[in-house]
From TrEMBL:
One GO CC term, this protein: extracellular matrix
Keywords of the record: Disulfide bond, Glycoprotein, Proteoglycan, Secreted, Signal
GO biological process per UniProt: articular cartilage development; bone development
UniProt-recorded name of the protein: LRRNT domain-containing protein
Lineage: Eukaryota, Metazoa, Chordata, Craniata, Vertebrata
Pfam families recorded: LRR_8
The organism's place on the tree of life at top rank: Eukaryota
């Protein structure tokens, strides 16, 4: 009948609308910009307990980075190459096994660094202005500490 045809047309139109809504839903994207993945507040970036496996790209004016309790395994020189404003970094509770030589070398304002509860076997070269450093509960033995590490 004529009424039956209208109902099925309406139903078909509604199904098409539903399909387009489904395909437009966001999918989980691990390449989200840092400030969508983490919380960014006036120079501070909080990336805690979000299972990231690498240091995220940071806004240029970042002074404080809190990336505790994640799955970060290594820190590369490129992670902080463009961020010279960092004053505090906290990587406690990650899986960091390696820190590339020079990873912190451009961080001339860095005063506080926590690498506690990781898997380090040697200390990284530390920046000159560092006043607070924590490497508790790692795998560092005396051979992993250079003679001038705390110069």
């Amino acid at each position: 009948t004529k009424d039956g045809t209208n109902v099925s047309l309406d139903t078909a139109l509604r199904l098409q609308e539903d399909d387009s809504e489904l395909s437009a839903r966001p999918t989980k994207d691990t390449n989200l910009p840092t400030c969508l993945l983490c919380v960014c507040l006036s120079g501070s970036v909080y990336c805690e307990e979000i299972d990231i496996e690498a240091v995220p790209p940071l806004p240029k004016e970042t002074a404080y980075l809190y990336a505790r309790f994640n799955k970060i395994k290594r820190i590369a020189v490129s992670d902080f190459a463009d961020i010279t404003t960092l004053r505090r970094i906290d990587f406690s509770g990650n899986m960091i096994e390696e820190i590339e030589d020079g990873a912190f070398s451009k961080l001339l304002l860095l005063e506080e660094l926590s690498l506690a509860e990781n898997r380090l076997v040697k200390l990284p070269v530390l920046p000159p202005k560092l006043t607070t450093f924590n490497a508790n509960q790692n795998r560092i033995k005396s051979r992993g500490i250079k003679n001038n590490a705390f110069k």
